[in-house]
Amino acid sequence: MFFQPKANLSDSAKSRIEFCLQQIAECIGFERLLLPVVSRKAIFDLYEVERDPQQVIAFVGKHLEHDVNGIQVRNALPQAQSAGGGCCGGGSCDGPSGLAGRYEPSDRSITLDQTIDSDPAMGLATLINAVVCDLLSQNSFAGAQLPEQVDLAVVGTGLGMIRNGISLVAKHPVHWDSTQWDVFPRPFLDGQSLAYANAIAAWARDDQAPKWSSDLPSDLKRPMRKSLKFLLKTNDSFFQPRAKQFLLTQSQSEWWKLATDSSASSQVIAIRHLNSDGKLDDQQESLLIDKLGSANVAITLNAISAIERMASQQPAIGNESMVRELRSLTDHRDDEVCAKSMCVLAKLGGLDEATVETAATMLDAHQKHLTFAGLYALCMQDSVPEEVVPALDRCFVRVLRACDYELIDLIATAYRRLLDDPQSHMEELFQNSPEHLPIALETLQKVSEPRMPLRRGA
pLDDT of 323-376, one tens digit each? Predict the structure, then answer.
């Protein structure tokens, strides 16, 4: 086959969403994530009858089979804005600060920052979001205060049609997070993530051509249908609600077995759960090395993370076979794989002459995560070749002019570790840039002294 169906998200992003949905389902019940999808019209029509927020809350509670008695609705002062507290607001985004209100679990209250009539879609979405927050909180769900996970619960329970029409994240903040899981707290779902959440909602209900998808905004409709086609064709999802199988408490042997599954998402999630009480057996070691060499970048990145995690607890896991494979990945075609493998090699003490040279070339890279990885690796060395220092100098001048203080501190640390007289070196380096010298010297004074006397390599 020449054209394989693909999801609209990367394997890292889709596996994170599927894992969160599995967490939600295991907490509030799989049956709630198989409920019918409620149309926008049904909710708008309900509100139009009496314009009573409590009526909407009662409707949502009945849909969820959740007791909403005791939930109170309050109106904030007209000038009040969403403070980002509770479960309705918050989240980091380049766009609106959140929904038009917030839910407080301590007294089960919903505070609306504007009247529903002033913006019915936003107001009704806020009420729905808050009731789902209440459901999650009452069931002691750990992520009940996290915008992304509440959004997933709203869509997953069939209540997302109004929320789908509201853009709360114009653009995700830029982080270097090679597995794309660990940015915290995560913002509300952006458009692409909403599209995938809706696709998995249709697929979970075995709805191959959902009528409700025609009400999706145009920017969600196409990627949603693309992902639905992918799911129907491949069934590549860790989250399988119709199976109603509890997966998050399974044994280590079951996680290791799942790491060989045909589903890329299941592999990623399983790899993130792998652990060992001691040295890996031959089969486990072979599996991890195989995952390091995967053609799927998400699997490779998470395998690197797994080795880092396990080796920090059991150093024998970071043996020569693992180190040799990680060294080969520092020249990988994907720059995040290069950077991540370099950082882990440095932590394991596995850098050799060739990888030190590779680390030096990373200092001239335009991608910040590559520069960071190269600097981090060099900072872990007792000595470096003479030709590394000019690369360090070029990097320092560049980041100082860009006012990139995170990297400035790291470079100053490297100078302290690798040079006998870093202050004199800086004075010479910035003799023609007097405006930069005070900043360089101040940074040098702030960074801690090296743990042991180090020398520059020959």
Answer: 999 999 999 999 999 999 999 999 999 999 999 999 999 999 988 899 999 999
Angle of CA points 160, 110, 68, to nearest 5°:
70
* 200: amino acid identity, one letter: I
- Say if CB 292 and CB 323 are below 8 A apart: no
Q: Running DSSP on this structure, what letter comes out for residue 117?
A: G
Share of the chain above pLDDT 70, in %: 89
CA distance 15 to 332: 23
Instruction: Give me the long-range contacts of 417-420 (CB less than 8 A, separation at least 24).
Output: 417/379, 417/381, 417/450, 417/454, 418/378, 418/381, 418/383, 418/384, 418/389, 418/392, 418/454, 418/456, 419/389, 419/456, 420/455, 420/456
- Beta strands (DSSP E) in 125-164 are none
Selected residue with higher pLDDT from 59 and 431: 59
The phi and psi torsions of 146 (rounded to 5 degrees) equal -95, 120
Distance (Å, whole) CA 354 – CA 165 = 52
Provide the 3-class DSSP secondary structure of residue 104: strand
Residue with token string 């079951």? 254
Of 25-39, 137-151, 264-278, 419-433, the least confident: 419-433
Alpha helices by DSSP H, 29-78 = 40-50, 53-64
What is the residue-wise DSSP string for 180-198? S---SS--S--HHHHHHHH
Which pair of structure tokens corresponds to residue 46?
């309900």
**Per-position DSSP letters for 243-270, written without gaps between them:** G----TT--HHHHHHHTT-S-HHHHHHH
The CA distance from 189 to 317, in Å, is 37
Please classify residue 221 by burial: count the beta carbons closer than 10 Å to its beta carbon, then call 0-12 exposed, 13-18 middle and 19+ buried: middle
Quote the pLDDT of residue 80: 42
According to DSSP, the residues that pair with 73 across neighbouring strands are 110
Q: What is the pLDDT of residue 137?
A: 97
Look at residues 218, 168, 222, 225 and name the one whose alpha carbon lies nearest to residue 201: 225
Indicate whether 402 pLDDT > 60: yes
Nearest by Cα to 241 from 34, 455, 396 = 34
For the question of whether the overall pTM of this predicted structure is more than 0.85, the answer is: yes
- Strand 101-104 vs strand 109-112: parallel, antiparallel, or unpaired? antiparallel
